[in-house]
C-alpha cells in the first residue's frame, strides 16, 4: 500500500506543482482546497502525512492543524506547513500550532520529496 499524503492547498497552480512533484514518488495523493475539506478528508482517509498551506479559505491551516492534533489518531502524523508569507516569529507559531516543520513558497521541488521521505521514515521508527 502506498503511503497517503494529503495536500491542502487552495491555489490551483500550487496544487498542480505539488501533485507533479510528488506523483513520481508513488504516493497516494489526496487533495483538499479549504480547511473544512482538509478536516473531512483527513479524518476519513487517515493520511500518513499532510502538506498544509497556511492561508486557506474557511479554516486556516494553523486552525486545521490544531484541530487535527486534538484527535488522538493525528497526534503523530507529520504536518508540513507551507506559506509565502512567513514573517519573523511565524515559524515558532507554526510549530506551536502543531506543525512539524515549515517550507516557504515558492516550493523547492527538489527539497520537498526529501523532507517528506525523512518525515515518513522517522514516523516508522517511532512506531517500531
Ligand atoms: Mn493559500
Can you characterise this structure?
The protein is of the alpha/beta class. It has a single domain (4-127), classed as 3-Layer(aba) Sandwich (Rossmann fold), CATH 3.40.50. The chain is 44% helix and 19% strand. A five-stranded parallel sheet has the order 2-1-3-4-5, with helices on both faces. Strand 4 (79-83), helix 4 (90-97) and strand 5 (101-104) form a beta-alpha-beta unit. 27% of the residues are buried. The structure holds manganese (II) ion.
Q: Which structural class best describes the helix and strand composition? A: alpha/beta
Can you list the ligands bound to this structure?
manganese (II) ion
Which architecture does the CATH hierarchy give at level 2?
A: 3-Layer(aba) Sandwich
Number of helices: 5
* Largest beta-sheet characterization: 5 strands, parallel
CATH topology, by name, is Rossmann fold
- Classify the helix fraction into a percent range: 40-55%
Radius of gyration: 13 Å
What strand order characterises the main sheet? 2-1-3-4-5
Which features does this protein show?
128 residues; alpha/beta; Rossmann fold; 5-stranded parallel β-sheet; globular; binds manganese (II) ion
Amino acid at each position: 500500500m502506498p503511503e497517503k499524503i494529503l495536500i491542502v492547498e487552495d491555489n490551483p497552480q500550487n496544487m498542480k506543482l505539488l501533485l507533479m512533484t510528488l506523483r513520481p514518488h508513488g504516493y497516494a495523493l489526496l487533495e483538499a482546497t479549504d480547511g473544512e475539506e482538509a478536516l473531512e478528508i483527513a479524518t476519513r482517509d487517515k493520511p500518513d502525512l499532510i502538506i498544509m498551506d497556511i492561508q486557506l479559505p474557511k479554516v486556516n491551516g494553523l486552525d486545521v492543524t490544531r484541530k487535527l492534533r486534538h484527535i488522538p489518531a493525528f497526534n503523530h502524523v507529520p504536518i508540513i506547513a507551507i506559506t509565502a508569507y512567513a514573517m519573523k516569529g511565524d515559524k515558532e507559531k507554526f510549530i506551536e500550532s502543531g506543525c512539524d516543520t515549515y517550507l516557504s513558497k515558492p516550493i523547492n521541488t527538489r527539497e520537498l520529496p526529501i523532507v517528506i521521505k525523512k518525515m515518513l521514515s522517522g514516523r516508522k521508527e517511532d512506531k517500531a
